[in-house]
Amino acid sequence: MSLVRLFYPKTIAIVGASQNLDSIGGQPIKYLQKYGFKGNILPVNPKYSEIAGLKCYPSISDINEEIDIVLVAVASKRVLSVVKECVEKKAHFVLIFSSGFAEIGNVKEQQELIEAVKGSGTRILGPNNQGIVNFVEGIPAGFNPLLDAEVVRKGNIGIVAQSSGMGFASIGFAIERGLGISHIATVGNQADIDIMELIQFMLEDEHTSIVTCIIEGVKPNSRLPELAKLAKQKGKELVFLKLGRTAVGKKASMSHSGSLAGDAEVFDAFCQQAGVISVKDMEDLIDVLVGLQGKRPGGNRVVIATETGGSGILAADICDEFKIKTPGLTEETSSSLRKILPSFASVQNPVDFTAQFFNEEDLFRNCLLEVVKDSNIDVLMFSFGPTRGKVAEKMADDIIKVSKTLTKPIFISWLTPEQPFFKKLRAANIPLYPTPYRCVRTLGYIMRQESSMMSKEEKSASKPKHAVQQAVSLTEYQTKKMLEKYGIKLPKGGLATSFQEALNLSAQIHYPVVLKLMSPQITHKTDAGLVILGIKDEQELAASYNALLERAGTSFPQAEIEGVLVEEMVQKPVAEVILGIKYDVSFGPVMIFGLGGIFVEVLGDVARRVLPLTREQAFGMISSIKAFPLLNGYRGRPKGDLEALADTILNVSHFALEQQDKFAEMDINPIFLMPEGKGVICGDALLIPR
């Protein structure tokens, strides 16, 4: 069902309407009149015959016209009967402000609302929300004091918020920064219409080019990947502020809107892959929205220009922190600047115009014209100090004039309190920030968007030789044989069911060898003393083989023994890494990559990606961890076979996608990363069936 009538209604009824226009039942009437709503406003309350000069009806059934929206502001115990009346009246949408449903555990009461509209033409938004506002046409079908206190500029930003308060708060901050809003929709408990439907509507809305989402949780089997693809197709931006990022926050989210907050790290990984911006704070959110008003960077090379050296140095430090490149200018540009600037000026990056522009009226503009022509840069960032007054205003005017001729964006940090001419910069859609940190951080968010996994077709993992059967419980040996079918390289070796077989295998693969006892009932073999490394000869092999069987019989007398895995002792790897798979209820299989062995738990230096992956994204995972230099030949160390590691990541991802209905989790830890040209080897593997 189309949501057009929800955002562009002709008739709005308010059940629970009040003559107190500051109450929840009164605010919608006040705001609809204040904003000049051209349709019909129909208050409903049997106590009154008239409210704010409008006829008041005893009930919905007494209204003799088609109703697009019914706003419900009554006690929770009365909501169900109102919804049923709306269904009988064939109202198109019911916006339920009332709380007291799933957010406090009253799941049954909320389910009754869903059942009441099932199969009808009536849809529910809420309960537990503050409605929607169409700022383009002045239709505030909701309540919030901000609508009374502020004049909201019409613009290109649509807001969808599970938290009504956070949603309206973002409008207040947006107003301060000169941003314009097209719509806001607050979601509440999502009994019927969910946040994904509202995002889709705004992506398809002609007045909206940036969709901002303040979200607590993502439902299972989310449509978010589909919507990220839609945003890219339409050339629009999605920006998320994800709430419930910690255990405490997740618990609060459940009690606030009945939402499962989900894994924030998985959410961030999805956003990075899909070209969606995910921020962690309201300040970040507004700063990014400011940045998206300007032109988009064509790369991550920034030239910093300043009139005070310290501010430029600070900006350069922050660029380095956010991995934004600050390359030197071309010799042609530097030579041109030397002719214009004093001899003591810096003509590299950062460029220091010095305070000489106070003496020479056209100095700033002439320098600006030279810098923007440089082929080494994608973004020009001004990191100004406390310059203000007429000189500063002329600088702003010069920037505005020049920016109109550029395809490259200009970002500005200005270390001074609000100035009158700042409005001109904002009106020209030039992103402006009070500190270098906030300016560079915003550039980092915008530049960090990876190529979408949905926008590129690249080589993926090879197809398996044959399907894998459903497993009840798998040993390391069984798991490895399954992975081998997907192109995962294993150590030389095999499964021995007798000492003679173990002896023969050891002779074939050569000492030193490793022995591991295999049992479907024993998953943590090392902790149980059932792994013995570095066995050098036949005598040690016999003692170790017997010791494993004795320990298993003593500690796990009921365990079924599959045999003893005999493998080569992998020598001189560059590093040990881990590949893990977990299945997220919202996004499906998620891959985890990092240093292996004990380091994954101690350091927590891991990268996450939602599957499927492209080869480019596989390399992106590898290079994104802090320990990457250790894999890539740091200080004369051997360089690891990163091509083979990327192949393995893709092959494991293929396995995970093919077998996601059978397995809940998987760990390959360690994977031995061998020197360049020698591949990678799967040292241990664990699969947990569903």
UniProtKB/TrEMBL annotation:
Residue ranges of every copy of the ATP-grasp domain listed in the record: 480-516
GO terms, molecular function: ATP binding; ligase activity; metal ion binding
Keywords assigned by UniProt, alphabetized: ATP-binding, Ligase, Nucleotide-binding
Record keyword Nucleus present: no
Pfam family, one: CoA_binding_2
SMART domains in alphabetical order: CoA_binding (SM00881)
Domain of life per record: Bacteria
Family classification: In the N-terminal section; belongs to the acetate CoA ligase alpha subunit family.
Protein name stated in the entry: Acetyl-CoA synthetase
